[in-house]
Amino acid sequence: MPSRSHAGTRPGDGQPGGSAAPGAGDPDDADVAGDAAGDAGAADDAVTCDGLVVRYGRVTAVDGLSLSARRGQVLAVLGPNGAGKTSTVETLEGYRRATGGRVRVLGLDPVADHRALVGRMGVMLQRGGVYPTMAPRQALHLFARYYDRPRDPDALLDLVALGPVATTPWRRLSGGEQQRLSLALALVGRPEVLFLDEPTAGVDPEGRLAIRQVVADERSRGTCVVLTTHELPEAEHLADHVVIVARGRVVASGTPAQLAASAGGEAVRFVAPAGLDVTELAAALGPAAGGVAEAAPGHYEVAGPATPATVAAVAAWLDRQGLPVQGLRTSAATLEEAYLQLVGATDGQRGGGSDGGGSDGGGSDDGAGNGAATGASRAGASQAGASQAGHGRRDRGGRRRGRR
Predict the structure, then answer these.
(1) How far is residue 118's CA from residue 109's CA, in Å, rounded to a whole number?
(2) pTM for this one?
(3) C-alpha pair distances (Å), 328 with each of 4, 99, 268, 300, 314
(4) CATH fold for the domain made of 266-331
């Protein structure tokens, strides 16, 4: 199994197979689009999973999961640690073999057709993947050499706002700067499908805005973007479609607005310590309120018309309890509230099952079975021959850092 990397090349490939995706305003757009003809370019769906199953020994990490994403669409895959996100995305990238089901990327099998597909994908790791002493400009110029039609490395530096630190070694970059370099490395080959792993983790507000713009630009040029994140507001800003995964299965999917609407209509919502006596609060509010519920731990909703009187009554009750007024608002539910409701509903069913034998404590989506099976093959693997042996590296234990 090839080692996972930012830009999709693999050891020994030299120039990546396949053609690059067209970029907005590029003179080669027509030629590049033509190169994608055939089965790989005919379907609207750039990414599909149909009944995907991934097992590690007796542990089922992904259990009959189905999803799809079109060209020019941003798909966010959300879920708690151990939900199956990493196993799903790594199967789509071709770095993990499915136990069952059918997976296609650009009409190709990510494992059987990996050599033909690898140059058409971009992969952004959450952490690592660059020589510690290599500077952003060096890394981008190096990676550009592996592609037939690379993007201009210096233009990419400006795009992700790394010009001022272009000659600074990777190990001296801030966490947000390292993230932006990882994004630039994933973009350098003009991917048709872009996989982003926690793209805004550790990034400052200015960097987040830059990343959002990059994602929007990729969408507009027809790139299919698949991202995983724990930052629900980012998913709400970036995604056209959201899939929420829990215990290896899809528990909900739709647009951010559709999922938010499923969590309830207009109501008074507030945040307070978990376990408040909602019956006492409902009695204090009187019959005008349609009931009080703790939608998720610490997140409360007062059903019914969001009148000023109801808001004042909620604030007064919190004051009598000696509790601060936090997040008090009158609005429809957010994607985060929908997520908490949906994932919370599955928590009681989790038992010992997780994406690798219940090893969430390590922060890994794949768990111990995954690490034991693949740690050696992925640790320190090369990107494209000996000159790139440091790319795609993991932590000292051989596992990718910052797993979701």
Answers:
(1) 11
(2) 0.68
(3) 44, 47, 7, 10, 9
(4) Alpha-Beta Plaits (3.30.70)
